[in-house]
Amino acid sequence: MTTNRKKIFSCPTNNIEEFRLFVNQAAALGATHVTISDLPKSIWQWNLDRFDPYPNWGMLVATIFKVIVPEALRPFLPVDYAQKNLDIITQRSAILKEFGLKAAFIGKEPAWLPEAVYAAYPAWRGPRCEQPRRARKPYYAPCIDHPEVLAMYRQAVAELCRYAPIEHFNFLTNDSGGGICWSVSLYPGPNGPAWCESRSYADRVVGFMDTIQNGARDAGYTAEVSMYYGSGYISQAEVASVIPALHPGQSLNQKTREGLNPTRLIGYPFYDNAVGPVPGIPQAWRIAEHLQEAEKDQTANLNYSFDYLDYPEFYELIRQYQKNPRPDVAGRMENLLQTAIVQVGKEHADVLMNVWEKIAKAIYSIKSLGGDPIMLVGSVNQRWITRPLVPFPMELQPAEKDYYRQFQFQANSEEEAADLMNIQGFEIINGYSGSMLAGNLFNQAINHLKSAVEDLEAARQRGMTDKMDLLILRLKVLICIYRNALYTVQYQDILDRTDYTQPPQEVNIYPQDGDQLLREIQIVTRHDVDNTQELIQLLSSTKEVLILTAPTPAEEDIFLLGPNLIEQLQKKIDITLKHQWDVHRLYRRRQS
């Protein structure tokens, strides 16, 4: 077994005490490195233009210049924000030193810079890197062919590594407001300065990775650098052209120069959790599969990615695999069973394993919808959870929609913003067939979760530990979130099948049945109102965290619901009921 592989642990934490707790747990599980780059969002980027939602993607991810601001960029970037981040990293590095651990930096590069930078240094302007359907204006990353830009990166990395013992850098690129000149996978298409167009793409990418490694080396560290594209299959040939040119300690899209996978991911970030804003849903089945696959590859580094700090099942599964490192299905089942026994005892372990399997089936159904994760880009980014279902959304007054509209990701017209299925410029679910297929998947997920809740509640009656009470609540909340998504899809489908140009012809003849679409939309509306009321009751029943929200109203953004969530949910109900009679402008009423 390889002994020098890195074991990198990553988890978002809210303060230095939580970070210390995570490091303590990671160290006990054999960590060699802990990620230190989960930093406060760079909301200053959105504040440059609140009319454009696109910076919300970039706000999520750390960059080198968000921590170390080169001298030339200091007039254009918020130095106080960077200093706060550097202070956090310095505190975290001190904790790592106590435990004898090194650091990892996960971020995005090269990342867009404000337009004022390029006004002052026009030769540094690199590629447009925005997603055109999701942005209201162009955004430019710096050109990493320019020697002055590379010099800034090298100096910044060296300074960063003098504060933090970073031996592993992992950068997202060509996504979320970042990109490389002339890449085929840039969202606007291949673009960049004319002067560097003919340069070998492999030289460009490898040259940037060399720069990061040289910066770390200047501070006394030998660092690995990996980059990965976030923008799809069209880059396969381009990536393949770079792989043979990579230097030692470099990888692109999970391939080294030798064609090996340098790092095995165990776990998932919040983006890929398929449960939206609901924390603490144990995806033990999924993690056990990752651990099983990792055991088949004893050469790769291991990256344990937690989406939530309080995840005892994850920690215990790692312990079980360390004691019983079997790379087969039987070993996976054995380790899951032992983990369940630790959680609830032998008497109830089988029940908990069944619950984990049902959760896995539910999440598999949701992930089968494809595209961007619907529970993020729909339920949260489009504010399905809190926006009312009304037949004429364009007629809502500011007081009726500002509470959600300002946090709804939509860069195009207000007509597209009013379309519930327009997800950041795309319709992931469209038409009756799409609604039906999505409905089947949501119903499958809901039924699996309801069955899991029933199993847990029955086991509680038989004396199972009350540690599962919080999980029961969170599963009930997740059912409400899935139902809301289902009803939202169905509501928009009904509107899409409605002819807005023809007013209903009301005939005063008794008895007379109403339009089929009227019955459908009234039923869906009532279902969503009742479901929202149930969600309010669940959230009001405990002080435990059932949905992740911003700490303060000022910190609410497109990716994070506000702390006044219950108030917003009640407002949704009130507005929906206020406008429920508006459907009679579209459909013939029943008289019987």
Question: How does this structure look, described?
Answer:
There is one protein chain. Among the domains are: 46-59 and 106-253, no CATH class; 364-585, no CATH class. It has helices at residues 16-28, 43-47, 55-59, 79-99, 115-120, 147-163, 201-218, 236-242, 284-295, 312-323, 329-344, 346-367, 374-377, 398-405, 414-418, 431-461, 469-496, 516-540, 565-578; strands spanning 7-10, 33-35, 102-108, 125-128, 140-142, 166-173, 224-229, 250-252, 263-267, 301-305, 422-423, 426-427. It is α/β, with parallel strands linked by helices and 592 residues long. 47% of the residues are buried. An eight-stranded parallel sheet has the order 8-7-6-3-2-1-10-9. A two-stranded antiparallel ribbon has the order 4-5. It has a two-stranded antiparallel ribbon with strand order 11-12.
List the helices and strands and how they pair.
Blueprint: E1 7-10, H1 16-28, E2 33-35, H2 43-47, H3 55-59, H4 79-99, E3 102-108, H5 115-120, E4 125-128, E5 140-142, H6 147-163, E6 166-173, H7 201-218, E7 224-229, H8 236-242, E8 250-252, E9 263-267, H9 284-295, E10 301-305, H10 312-323, H11 329-344, H12 346-367, H13 374-377, H14 398-405, H15 414-418, E11 422-423, E12 426-427, H16 431-461, H17 469-496, H18 516-540, H19 565-578
Parallel strand pairs: 1-2, 1-10, 2-3, 3-6, 6-7, 7-8, 9-10
Antiparallel strand pairs: 4-5, 11-12
Helix pairs in contact: 1-4, 6-7, 9-10, 9-11, 10-11, 11-12, 12-16, 16-17, 17-18, 18-19
